[in-house]
What does this fold into?
Amino acid sequence: MAKLSLLLADDEDIIRKRVGLMLGSEFDIEEAINAKQAVEASTKGFDVILLDIMFPDGNGVDICRTIKQANPHSTVVISSSMETLEAWNKAFDAGADGYLEKRELLSTDPRKICLMINSLVERNRLRKQAEETNKKQTQLLSVLTHDVRAPFQALLGTMELLRKSDIPPALSENVERMFESAGYQLSFINSLLELLRFESGLVQPRLYPTDINLAINQSVQTMRSFATAKQINIRAELEEKLPTIHGDIGQITRVMNNLLSNAVKFTKRGGEIRIETRKFLKKGFNGVLVIVADNGIGITDKEREKIFSAFHRGREKGTDGEVGSGLGLSICKEIMDLHRGSIELESRPQEGSVFKLWFPSAQSGDTTVISTNEN
Ligand code: ADP
It folds into this structure.
């Protein structure tokens, strides 16, 4: 691996010589002997700058501030003979990544100094990477929201007007098909936007003491008509007096809607969906278990491994030709993570699928992410 480049800025010859000997095997070192040289050289993009605090022609803290303003991800370590808290504070206020007293620098095992410098460089590299990813995602969100979703909404509005107007029957079938297809595209874009927002950390959970049965009843009410249209029965066995959980009722309803709509999609006509809630206290986990089980087409072991990742679509369509985005289960997983809970799947092809949601109770004080095996 190529060596990292290091600018060693110090006006004392003896210090430059000793530090050069200590760190020369690990870094490609260039020297600056005064503040002017340090400022000029710093623009060359060194991986790390080891900067004296006092030069006859300038101040290391000011130079550090200038470097960090120009490039916040550069790594600057101040070295100083000043062993005071004030000097230390000034250096960090100016954006320094580290502060080494010269006595310490010259007496410490060089491997430890290298390790410390390398970890600071790596930290800045990761920060830069995270900020760039975040920036790209924000741009993508903005394009999707303004340039893709908004025109689609306008298009759907116009089609809606067209559907209600007097159009020849020969055309009306085409308009219906266009309306349906635009509707699917819009719901895909909405799901994609939702997932991107979760992944960018833009969704802050608003968790309040919540009765989980309430969210489930709401979802069953919404989904029952879809199930009935396929002659699928939804049976709910909800335990009373469940422990209260810290939850966002809107998001929990979203998870339930996703699971129930999948259960309807992937169960043949005349099938059955069972929803169950129960309190669960075992192996240090105190909370609520929600089960959504169907006797539909089931999921293979191979498919199960990828099922919670975005864009995974096992079958292109449901048993009645229903289409999907492949995003629903990854959104469910994000929501469960925000609740510090988890989602699991058990399934057998041709027999059905059982999705399990684990929510920690509000009293449990358990803030760890749960992965509990019921047995
Ligand atoms: P989609 O919008 O495609 O349903 P999901 O992320 O919700 O996206 O589901 C991903 C895939 O997982 C589905 O395409 C389907 O193959 C499979 N799947 C999800 N739920 C079930 C279920 N209850 N029964 C069988 N397969 C399912």
Remarks:
- The chain has eleven helices and 14 strands.
- The longest strand covers residues 272-282.
- Residues 129 and 135 are 10 Å apart (CA to CA).
- The mean pLDDT is 89.
